[in-house]
Known about the structure:
By secondary structure, the protein is of the alpha/beta class. The chain has two domains: 3-163, NAD(P)-binding Rossmann-like Domain (Rossmann fold), CATH 3.40.50.720; 169-293, N-(1-d-carboxylethyl)-l-norvaline Dehydrogenase, domain 2, CATH 1.10.1040.10. The protein has 14 helices and nine strands. The strands form two sheets. A six-stranded parallel β-sheet has the order 3-2-1-4-5-6, with helices on both faces. Strands 7-8-9 form a three-stranded mixed β-sheet. Helix 1 (13-22) packs parallel to helix 7 (124-130), helix 4 packs parallel to helix 6 and helix 9 (166-194) crosses helix 13 (263-280). The longest helix has 29 residues, at 166-194. 48% of the residues are buried. It binds nicotinamide-adenine-dinucleotide (NAD). Residues 7-13, 30-33, 36, 64-66, 70, 73-74, 95-96, 121-122, 124-125, 246 line the site of nicotinamide-adenine-dinucleotide. Residues 3-162 form the 6-phosphogluconate dehydrogenase NADP-binding domain. InterPro entries: 3-OH-isobutyrate_DH-rel_CS, 6-PGluconate_DH-like_C_sf, 6PGD_dom2, 6PGDH_NADP-bd, HIBADH, HIBADH-like_NADP-bd, HIBADH-related, NAD(P)-bd_dom_sf.
Amino acid sequence: xxxxxxxxxxxxxxxxxxxxxxxxxxxxxxxxxxxxxxxxxxxxxxxxxxxxxxxxxxxxxxxxxxxxxxxxxxxxxxxxxxxxxxxxxxxxxxxxxxxxxxxxxxxxxxxxxxxxxxxxxxxxxxxxxxxxxxxxxxxxxxxxxxxxxxxxxxxxxxxxxxxxxxxxxxxxxxxxxxxxxxxxxxxxxxxxxxxxxxxxxxxxxxxxxxxxxxxxxxxxxxxxxxxxxxxxxxxxxxxxxxxxxxxxxxxxxxxxxxxxxxxxxxxxxxxxxxxxxxxxxxxxxxxxxxxxxxxx
Length: 296
Ligand code: NAD
């Protein structure tokens, strides 16, 4: 069993660390929040007073932090992971961050003698708690194989996407499809309402026709056709609109820095920005149908 240093014990990191402990690993963790450190102790982990204390004896380090600037600071900043972990330590960053930061930090890690993978997740807090997350992994094949048993303790589907940064690329490309398709499906329901077409009838037809997609058949943005979708519980998340906006912004940053043309991704980002600014940041992202209806 391995000694694991875990930094970032929030909504996702807390239950992920708990699953590593359940799998028999010794987890020493640090978070800026005292409450998060207390929760780690409750599930059998060892709270640390700072990043250095969490990682200096670790075989493996896992981080689950808000954004790229936090990841850069925690890894490459003074008193950070690269200064304090032993050469040969395996580094796993599961935060959702920009591709450029993921690649820059992995490069700095390699120079310090440590293999690093980017391993963002989908599955939300429910998946983190149940240990059923999907991991999209970027990095060398050898590092991926070393990481696999630890990722399996926290998730169910583990995919090697390619070299460094491609895990983050997979995450933002997938969520750009999701954001665009949710708006497309929502616009169709709003137009159907205006045209006197019953929502259930549109669902019955499109779910077996060429308009079929996950946003329609699994996560339908109007109440009724898919009883488990957030539309049936007043759009409680689920997947909050502000999280969708974060991922769409990351996709736009990546599109700009790589020169890719993503006009619908840009428009989806603008619409989710308006939706969040109208007081809907904590509403499920499928609630954008109400916003579109209100605009019509
Ligand atoms: P969170 O805000 O609950 O947790 C982040 C934690 O990092 C906080 O507890 C914070 O105190 C800690 N932190 C910040 N800076 C730190 C530092 N310098 N040192 C130590 N700790 C520090 O966020 P979360 O929901 O757990 O999300 C974490 C990451 O996972 C994000 O990148 C998010 O986009 C991604 N993600 C979240 C979900 C979800 O449903 N919540 C789903 C998929 C991916």
